[in-house]
Amino acid sequence: MLNQDWTKSSYSQRGESNCVECRTDTGRVFLRDSQHPAHGNLTLSLPEWQAFLRAVREGEV
């Protein structure tokens, strides 16, 4: 699924200043700091993103 718009993390809706935004493209996930979007982004392959999410859910990170 292609999503060209940046989406803010649902946890960022609490009014905290530490916000993460993401955007997806075919096989890639882009992450950036919403407070400093011009500072660049982190690009992960879909398998890397899935491995990261799995590690978070299992308490490894």
TrEMBL record:
InterPro entries in alphabetical order: DUF397 (IPR007278)
Domain DUF397 residue range list: 5-57
Protein name stated in the entry: DUF397 domain-containing protein
Biological source species: Lipingzhangella rawalii
